[in-house]
Amino acid sequence: MSSAAPRAAGPDHLWSVDEHLEDILTTIRPLDPIDLQLLDAQGCVLVDDVMVPVSLPPFDNSSMDGYAVRVADVAGASEEFPAALEVVGDVAAGAADPVHVGPGQAARIMTGAPLPPGAEAVVPVEWTDGGLGEGQATGMRARSLAPEGATGHVSVYRPVEERAHVRAKGSDVRAGERALAAGTILGPPQIALLASIGRGTVRVRPRPRVVVMSTGSELIQPEGELGSGQIYDSNSFALTAAARAAGAIAYRVGGVDDDADTLRSTIEDQLVRADLLVTTGGVSVGAYDVVKEALSHVGDEDEPGAGVDFRKLAMQPGKPQGFGSVGPDHTPLLALPGNPVSSYVSFELFVRPAIRTLMGLEDVHRPRTTAILKTDEALGSPKGRRQFLRGAYADGEVTPVGGTGSHLIAALAHADALIVLPEDVDSVEPGAEVEVVLLGG
Predict the structure, then answer these.
(1) Nearest one of 258, 158, 211, 204 to 42, comparing CA atoms
(2) Phi/psi zone of residue 223: left (φ > 0), alpha (ψ -120 to 50 degrees), beta?
């Protein structure tokens, strides 16, 4: 992967949120395009416009099970005076050589079957006796059970207008039109459209492979037995799930011990399957912050230009951050704080846009809006830092969820938005208009 080098700054430089994000997005490059089979391309981003080679539907066809007729032959038809037509055969879906419908004739036709020559409209079977002479029909009898239904006569009880119950050729899309635009994420409906116009492969940017690893000797995997001073590893699960929700193929590596050599070895082992590495924990100033210890000087003569820059950001939560590249291919690495709320907020602000950039999307950010702050008392915010509070958003209002502590993960499960309090604000009153980052989807 070809990436530019991250921007360097002095050790005392306090980065703004916008500076750090800009550095990430100008460094990371979209993945190179590849050709994939349709089902393998699900979730990927289309590289080029796809044009329609053949109209859909490719021929006039019936939208109902019924009888293909000439309009004049059923004009004035009623239950008292039905139109009696000769049935000249069946027209099934996929029929290559349909029968011809002449004056006074009808052809039994199935949904999706081509409108036969001479016919101008389709009469639903429920408007006829189904060729049985027993009054209004409720449906067609299976051909295997009643092959004689394709011959004989049918009584029609209602008139139809020209082109009634006929899906016109090209009524979905016409040959030469654009089926899908470059930049489209391919979901099931888009894959269906590609298949319907005859495309078996498509050129896309692949879904990025993201490896998430949490660090800390205190971490125990769920269902393990907690010892003294130990906690369950939630960060690797939360961020792996978040990476998948962002569109990545994500792999979880949980609970790397607080040992610099072990971490470096683990990262080296994971490079083979990573377009982006995300670590959580070990980026602050503690004696056991091994991510910082292991990666601060990872670049050497064998990997010129590689290395991870550890920074302080003017934000809360999430002040300590790291960004750079590792390995011979300069695989991008984002090092996030270890507190659960800090890591998740950092993911939303920095990692998710990085993933969307690798995918080749133009709009990589969560939607933002403004909302009225619904709270009983003023919210405080540290001046000089941009604060991100968890919130619940509905109907133009946002309510804070939980406190400001970066360890309060329970409240995070009930939040669907981040309330943004800017750097120049130290207090926000109830009823004030605030910026909100919407996290849904």
Answers:
(1) 204
(2) left
